[in-house]
Amino acid sequence: MSIHAASVNEDKRRDKSSSWGKTFRISLKQLVALLLILAVALTLFFWASDRIDTHKRWASMMEISQRFMIHFDEVYVRLPDKFTNESYPTHFWIRSELDYAYWVMLKLIRLDEAHSSQLFKIENLIDTLRDPATDTVRLNESQFSDLRNAIHTIAQKLPDAYWNPLNGTDVNSETGPSFWYFGPSPPDEAMLQQVATLAIQAKAIISP
Q1: Which alpha helices (DSSP H) does 164-188 contain, by range?
Q2: Alpha-carbon distance 57 to 63, whole Å?
Q3: What's the rounded Cα separation, in Å, for the pair 127 and 98?
Q4: How many domains is the chain built from?
Q5: Of these four, 2, 95, 112, 164, which has the most CB atoms within 10 Å of its CB?
Q6: Residue at 193 is within a domain
Q7: pTM of the full predicted structure?
Q8: How many Cβ atoms are within 10 Å of 157's Cβ, its own excluded?
Q9: What values do phi and psi take at 31, rounded to 5?
Q10: Does the CA dihedral 153-137-123-63 come out positive or negative?
Q11: Residue 114: pLDDT band by 50, 70, 90 thresholds?
């Protein structure tokens, strides 16, 4: 083989090697870019999924707080019978409403663990009202009126605390606000604290 032919072959090998090197470098850049795109896509996916789940949880808290209102307001209506009527049916119905309110409250506590300390104060009031020993408590007219008013206010204000931050958004009991809602998350801290304080005061009336 001539020197010239050997030189030509060597140049071809170098060109081929250089071509493979360029191809590899381009592929590596593409791979890095692809991995970055994939990482961003996964991050956005998990963020969106978490946001949807959070909004659904808000909707559940709102729905459960409204169920609590129904049962606890019924306690407000039937409370006079608890203290003045010894008949079994009367005690059965008010005890049933207290039980429903109690279990609904436990569900709300599980959903909203961040505010469990306030919610436990309401649960404690319900538990005190459920206690058979509470039937023996004799309240004067003023105390009884204060207790009923407290129960009614708690029943009404608790769902307001979970609905209030979502005003002006597309809210329903299944999905919560729209995906693009970036307002405050429920509950309304000040209102929930008012309800918790009222629960403490109501419990003090029946078990000072």
Answers
A1: none
A2: 10
A3: 8
A4: 1
A5: 112
A6: yes
A7: 0.76
A8: 18
A9: -65, -45
A10: negative
A11: very high
